[in-house]
């Protein structure tokens, strides 16, 4: 009888240890899956840039909000009053000066007619001319490009 009772106690202790271990393991697993994973939408896209580019992107964000956000969606993928800006730098063959010229005075840039893709975009948008931004410098445009491309890649 004593042996049976001792055996029952040992079985109960083993079950407690076994299920207690599962519970502790589950708590560890639960904690592990709740921690943010980079690039899964749980951390900031800003965490993945060096400091110099981060400053440029932050400056671009402020410039975008002040000058572009009323017509362009910040996810850079959807159209609004103006077209989505994600990947738009490629439409200018990655030419900062052409991009700057367009932003500062899109009507004059389109009138030159030397960029067929931009003329086609103009046609596709019912010949709507973008508001001119002659106050934006080359450095401002670079910052806006850095921000729009970062947002485009992050979404």
Order of helices and strands, N to C?
A: HHHHHHH
Known CATH architecture of the largest domain: Orthogonal Bundle
What is the 3D shape? rod-shaped
Mean pLDDT: 78
The share of residues in extended strands comes to: under 5%
The CATH topology name of the largest domain reads Cytochrome Bc1 Complex, Chain D, domain 2
> What oligomeric assembly is this protein in?
single chain
Indicate the CATH class of the largest domain. Mainly Alpha
Number of helices: 7
State the CATH superfamily name of the largest domain: Cytochrome c-like domain
Q: Tell me the domain tally.
A: 2
**Low-confidence blocks of residues:** 28-46
Task: Give the % helix.
Answer: 55-70%
Number of DSSP strand runs: 0
The main β sheet shows up as: none
Distance between the termini: 69 Å
Q: Nearest-angstrom radius of gyration? A: 28 Å
User: Strand pairing plus helix content: what structural class?
Assistant: mainly alpha
A few lines on this structure:
This protein has two domains: 1-35; 45-154, Orthogonal Bundle (Cytochrome Bc1 Complex, Chain D, domain 2), CATH 1.10.760.10.
Provide structural commentary.
This protein is mostly helical. It folds into two domains: 1-35; 45-154, Orthogonal Bundle (Cytochrome Bc1 Complex, Chain D, domain 2), CATH 1.10.760.10. The chain is 62% helix and 0% strand. The protein contains seven helices and no strands. It has helices spanning 2-34, 51-67, 88-91, 96-104, 106-112, 116-124, 138-154. The radius of gyration is 28 Å and the shape is rod-shaped. Mean pLDDT is 78; it is low at 28-46.
């Amino acid at each position: 009888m004593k042996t049976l009772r001792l055996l029952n106690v040992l079985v109960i202790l083993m079950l407690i240890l076994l299920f207690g271990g599962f519970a502790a393991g589950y708590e560890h697993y639960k904690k592990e899956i709740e921690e943010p994973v980079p690039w899964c939408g749980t951390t900031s896209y800003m965490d993945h840039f060096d400091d110099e580019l981060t400053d440029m992107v932050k400056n671009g964000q402020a410039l975008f909000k002040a000058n572009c956000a009323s017509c362009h969606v910040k996810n850079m993928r959807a159209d609004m009053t103006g077209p989505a800006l994600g990947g738009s730098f490629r439409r200018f063959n990655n030419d900062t000066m052409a991009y700057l010229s367009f932003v500062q005075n899109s009507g004059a840039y389109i009138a030159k007619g030397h960029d067929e893709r931009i003329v086609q975009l103009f046609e596709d948008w019912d010949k709507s001319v973008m508001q001119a931004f002659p106050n934006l410098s080359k450095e401002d445009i670079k910052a806006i490009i850095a921000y729009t491309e970062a947002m485009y890649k992050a979404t």
